[in-house]
């Protein structure tokens, strides 16, 4: 995949990224929720598309997908009952460009989406975003106590390459813990 030009990235700041969701009536096991679209994702129309983002390799290595998917193949997730959304809709170069108010509002909108779509699990990939959006400063990685209707919540570390202090193997292990809970054999 060729990287977008600087002009394409700048134009992507105003381009929302559509959710990837199973169709009505289809099984919906896990909704992965990123913090917000990065500019490469917004420019390409594909979630977790920035080179160096570890989401797709970690999703595969943890057992959620039978093969490594490219961001352009994100639609294939729905056949396995998986989906992707974002906490905040505004594309940015870095998640720290978002305000707390945007994350809180995004959390409110996310709750509505989860109530309508009713996945078994909501997996928020980003501890800080979850803590801010859900007002839970003590949250840790793993299953959370609160639910949204019947949907359970699991917090995962952010797979962004910018979160380099969290090694890839630990990401795989955390995603695999969720997979074991969400897709028992």
From TrEMBL:
UniProt keywords, alphabetically: DNA damage, DNA repair, Hydrolase
Residues annotated as transmembrane: none
This protein's record includes keyword Plastid: no
Signal in keyword set: no
Molecular function GO terms recorded: pyrimidine-specific mismatch base pair DNA N-glycosylase activity; uracil DNA N-glycosylase activity
One GO-annotated biological process of the protein: base-excision repair, AP site formation
Pfam families named in the record: UDG
Domain of life: Bacteria
Boundaries of every Uracil-DNA glycosylase-like domain copy: 21-182
NCBIfam families in the record: PRK10201.1
Record-linked PANTHER family: G/T AND G/U MISMATCH-SPECIFIC DNA GLYCOSYLASE (PTHR12159), G_T MISMATCH-SPECIFIC THYMINE DNA GLYCOSYLASE (PTHR12159:SF9)
Descriptive protein name: G/U mismatch-specific uracil-DNA glycosylase
């Amino acid at each position: 995949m060729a990287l977008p030009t600087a002009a394409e990235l700048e134009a992507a700041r105003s381009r929302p990224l559509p959710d990837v969701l199973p169709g009505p009536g289809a099984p919906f096991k896990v909704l992965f929720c990123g913090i917000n679209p990065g500019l490469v994702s917004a420019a390409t129309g594909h979630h977790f598309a920035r080179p160096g983002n570890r989401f797709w390799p970690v999703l595969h290595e943890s057992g959620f997908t039978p093969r490594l998917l490219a961001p352009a193949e994100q639609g294939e997730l729905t056949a396995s009952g998986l989906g992707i959304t974002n906490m905040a809709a505004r594309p940015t170069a870095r998640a720290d460009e978002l305000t707390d108010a945007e994350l809180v509002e995004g959390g409110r909108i996310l709750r509505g989406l989860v109530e309508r779509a009713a996945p078994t699990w909501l997996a928020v990939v980003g501890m800080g975003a979850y803590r801010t959006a859900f007002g839970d400063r003590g949250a840790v990685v793993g299953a959370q106590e609160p639910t949204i209707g019947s949907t359970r919540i699991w917090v995962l570390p952010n797979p962004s390459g910018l979160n380099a202090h969290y090694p890839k193997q630990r990401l795989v292990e955390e995603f695999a813990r969720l997979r074991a809970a969400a897709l028992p054999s």
